[in-house]
Amino acid sequence: xGGKTDPQIVGEMLRGAGVEPADVEVLVAVALAEVxxxxxxxxxxxxxxxxxxxGVHRLLGDLAERPGVRQTLVTGNMARNAAVxxxxxxxxxxxxxxxxAYGDDSAERDLLVPISLERARRLRGETYAPDQxxxxxxxxxxxxxxxxxxxxxxxxxxxxxGFEAVRDLQADAVLETLDDTARVLGILLA
Length: 190
Known about the structure:
Blueprint: H1 6-16, H2 21-40, H3 43-49, H4 56-64, H5 79-88, H6 112-124, E1 134-137, H7 140-149, E2 152-156, H8 162-166, E3 173-175, H9 181-189
């Protein structure tokens, strides 16, 4: 499931369970609405059971202080679920969530970066050249999303398979962690 959009995951599960294709679209919407409702009440549970990877708070804070840097989310999660998740760990203040792109924007992950860039243009009056944009992720789908949009990609080994799963991906940079803030800033701001 890593790197897939929520609608894609639910649709695949329903089709795998033998649901008729004509019913999948309706049931995906119903299932996602229920997930959204449930997740809204799990903020404390996420905080107890989850964690923020080393270096993330410091990196996001340092980037937030840089003029001309705007941070947002491009994720397969539904927008409200993404906000709950980053909010549970105190990360929401670092992201300009309205210009992000989410699973409710498109079930196709590779379409999300252009959606976010268009929102930045429309809502903030900002246009970014491809070499100014970074997708930071932990799966091959994050890399595909970046490549399809023609932007840079930093892959971090925070996903399921660890460094072994990502080290050979042809990203612009591949790191085991984000805990060396100076190194990560050097990559992103070079």
